[in-house]
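A.,

Following up on our hallway conversation. Structure tokens first:
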């Protein structure tokens, strides 16, 4: 009897509860058309719904109270409304507006803030959302999922690297911070690892010549890392993760109002990896050990008439080493145990000041001081570099002409202890540049640009360019760019393969500047479907021709790296394709592919350049399940075979790399206020370059070549304990040597 009473009482309470709950229904549209598969969520609850094919939704069993209802669809601006559920069902409708990333503001292509679709120069933009899909401790690794861009490791021991764009070597790529060319020379090799991702607002990439605006280093393209403005940054943020290999990365920062007219953004990054691992059993560290800290400050000052004034500074210190597993600092610089140890100390200052005059004139300036104390086995490399840069830019519109006129001055000081630098290299380069964008009609415009530099070592340098833009519809744009480039080579600062290993460095002649000629055709198409799906297609074809190219020659003599001006020419040509798709219900995907041919022709013979892949591919897939606040990200890349530097005909290592791929998966939960928890697995396929090779580092058991015999001509003689006639060489590297690993992290943001 008692059980029966309890049953009826429970049933009565259920009926009573049902009578006190209500439903929320409505319709979601965009441009008065139904928007299916849209997520509708009641904030602070687990209740929600997805619109049907007619854009309609219903949420049932909602108790009385006040709620915030959020409607979101990838590619559209999220909309929130407050509703009150009292004594009846609620009906509410939503009209969503498209949030087109292609209309975001960019500055890199023309040195002016313009809409990405209006720029005559194609510029790719990658936001913080892109960086979060595959968390990395630095921007160098983050770029591995950008189509046509490849972070290239240049040494198996010290793991230094550079950025390749469209198959061109790292020195052809100019890397800037907030538009200032301060990442060059020594920091081209090491500086990229010290830029914390949490301070980045977006990354803008130009593929192709940009020398007419940015100078000689922007021959193959440029990467502009734009840091957050203090007013747009959260009040406090923190982001940290650890991996199964023992890596730890922490970013923290805050912004603060200083007085009535100043806002400061402070950020710090710390990265540590101190767990030597030797999975390929060659007694050398698979990954370089690192202890790194970077501190950043950025000030914005409010001025009359909204004139700009910002000032930023960064200090970076890193201690990294790689080598034999038993190495420790007591062996540094000796010939008993091999290790490559690098101490880097660097500071930077950069600013932008708009002059207090009627015309729009800005003064931009930067200064960097880089000190490197390093040893490669028992070979010391001590180098200092100081770069000062300043430029005035006058932005002026006259009828249909949008003019940009500027003058710049660059000071470069470099000194090291190598025989190539008998005296410190000190040069000051003045420059003039002018750019005119002529808007003939709303559909057509042409940009004409020219830069003049005077280098006391090489005389007058002219680098013109032209860019034509045709926009037949609001959803189509065609851009044709052509230009020239000019680059003065700083050999040891750009290519540390000349210092690592035992290959002899031979500089056969006084190196002349390189010159290049480039043409690029780009077509971009946007496509919107009535069911809310959105697609973007972006295709480019390019051709670059180099004279006086300076490329390391590993082929003439396998025991040497020979540097001279190519007696002929080299070319880079190819086609790339990108597609971005928004499918609805929190699903977004992107796919990119590049096919390229990079070769050099000398004495009538054409050969494929070393360490340039035939094809690359990148992809990302994201799915957010709004009711559970979970987001799944799957990212990856694939690289085609590339020719590798062997040590001779007897070298048993593969002449060409296999087709290889790095793939990652991540799950993020953002259901907490201000917090995100994320975790996943990197390198799912557990791919490393040693797969299919007998070894990666040649003669790792004899790094000082104590048991290598040479003939009278300096060639290695095969012996019983050296049957392949090898010397110690860690330059056979084309990808990261770090296998599968799990990671977990936590983000906190207080707006």
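Then the amino acids I'd put at each of the 751 positions:
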């Amino acid at each position: 009897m008692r059980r029966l009473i309890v049953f009826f009482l429970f049933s009565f309470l259920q009926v009573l509860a049902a009578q006190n709950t209500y439903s929320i229904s409505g319709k979601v549209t965009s441009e008065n058309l139904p928007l299916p598969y849209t997520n509708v969520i009641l904030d602070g609850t687990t209740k929600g719904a997805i619109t049907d094919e007619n854009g309609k939704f219903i949420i049932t069993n909602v108790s009385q109270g006040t709620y915030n209802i959020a409607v979101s669809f990838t590619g559209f601006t999220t909309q929130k409304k407050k509703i009150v559920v009292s004594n009846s069902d609620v009906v509410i409708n939503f009209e969503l507006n498209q949030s087109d990333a292609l209309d975001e503001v960019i500055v890199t292509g023309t040195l002016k803030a313009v809409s990405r679709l209006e720029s005559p120069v194609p510029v790719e933009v990658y936001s913080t959302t892109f960086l979060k899909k595959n968390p990395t401790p630095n921007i160098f690794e983050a770029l591995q999922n950008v189509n046509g861009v490849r972070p290239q490791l240049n040494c198996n021991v010290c793991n230094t690297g550079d950025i390749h764009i469209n198959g061109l070597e790292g020195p052809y790529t100019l890397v800037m911070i907030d538009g200032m060319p301060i990442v060059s020379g020594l920091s081209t090799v090491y500086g990229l690892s010290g830029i914390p991702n949490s301070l980045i607002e977006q990354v803008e990439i130009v593929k192709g010549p940009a020398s007419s605006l940015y100078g000689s280093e922007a021959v193959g393209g440029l990467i502009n890392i734009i840091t957050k403005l203090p007013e747009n940054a959260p009040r406090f943020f923190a982001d940290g993760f650890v991996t199964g290999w023992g890596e730890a990365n922490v970013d923290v920062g805050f912004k603060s109002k200083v007085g009535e007219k100043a806002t400061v953004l402070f950020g710090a990054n710390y990265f540590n990896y101190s767990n030597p691992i030797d999975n390929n059993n060659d007694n050398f560290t698979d990954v370089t050990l690192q202890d790194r800290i970077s501190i950043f400050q950025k000030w914005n000052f409010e001025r009359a008439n909204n004139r700009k004034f910002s000032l930023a500074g960064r200090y970076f210190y890193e201690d990294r080493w790689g080598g034999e597993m038993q190495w420790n600092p007591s062996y540094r610089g000796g010939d008993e145990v091999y290790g490559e140890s690098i101490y880097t100390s660097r500071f930077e200052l950069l600013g932008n000041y708009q002059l207090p005059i009627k015309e729009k004139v800005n003064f931009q300036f930067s200064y960097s001081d880089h000190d490197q104390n390093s040893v490669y086995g028992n070979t010391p490399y001590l180098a200092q570099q100081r770069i000062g840069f300043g430029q005035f830019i006058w932005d002026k519109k006259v009828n249909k002409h949008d003019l940009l006129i500027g003058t710049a001055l660059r000071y470069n000081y470099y000194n090291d202890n190598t025989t190539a630098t008998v005296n410190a290299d000190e040069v000051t380069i003045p420059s003039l540049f002018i750019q005119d964008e002529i808007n003939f009609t709303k559909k057509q415009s042409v940009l004409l640009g020219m830069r003049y530099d005077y280098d006391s070592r090489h005389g007058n340098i002219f680098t013109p360019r032209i860019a034509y833009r045709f926009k037949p519809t609001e959803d189509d744009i065609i851009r044709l760019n052509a230009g020239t480039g000019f680059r003065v080579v700083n050999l040891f600062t750009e290519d540390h393969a000349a210092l690592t290993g035992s290959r002899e460095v031979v500089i056969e002649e006084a190196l002349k500047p390189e010159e290049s000629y480039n043409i690029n055709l780009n077509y971009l198409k946007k496509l919107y479907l009535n069911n809310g799906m959105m697609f973007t297609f972006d295709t480019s074809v390019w051709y670059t021709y180099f004279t006086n190219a300076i490329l390391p020659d590993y082929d003439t003599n396998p025991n040497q790296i020979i540097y001279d001006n190519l007696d002929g020419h080299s070319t880079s040509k190819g086609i790339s394709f990108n597609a971005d798709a928004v499918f609805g219900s929190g699903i977004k995907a992107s796919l990119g592919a590049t096919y390229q041919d990079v070769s050099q022709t000398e004495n009538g013979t054409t050969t494929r350049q070393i360490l340039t892949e035939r094809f690359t591919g990148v992809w990302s897939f994201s799915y957010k399940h709004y009711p559970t606040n979970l987001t799944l990200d799957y990212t990856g890349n694939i690289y085609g075979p590339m020719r590798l530097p062997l040590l001779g005909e007897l070298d048993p290592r593969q002449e060409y790399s296999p087709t290889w791929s790095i793939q990652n998966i991540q799950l993020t939960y953002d259901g907490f206020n201000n917090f995100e928890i994320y975790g996943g697995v990197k390198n799912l396929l557990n791919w490393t370059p040693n797969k299919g090779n007998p070894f990666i580092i040649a003669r790792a058991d004899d790094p000082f070549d104590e048991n290598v015999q040479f003939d009278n001509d300096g060639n290695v003689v095969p012996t019983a304990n050296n049957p392949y006639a090898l010397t110690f060489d860690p330059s056979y590297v084309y990808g990261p040597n770090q296998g599968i690993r799990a990671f977990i992290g936590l983000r906190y943001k207080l707006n």
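The chain has a mean pLDDT of 85. Curious whether your intuition agrees with the design.

B.
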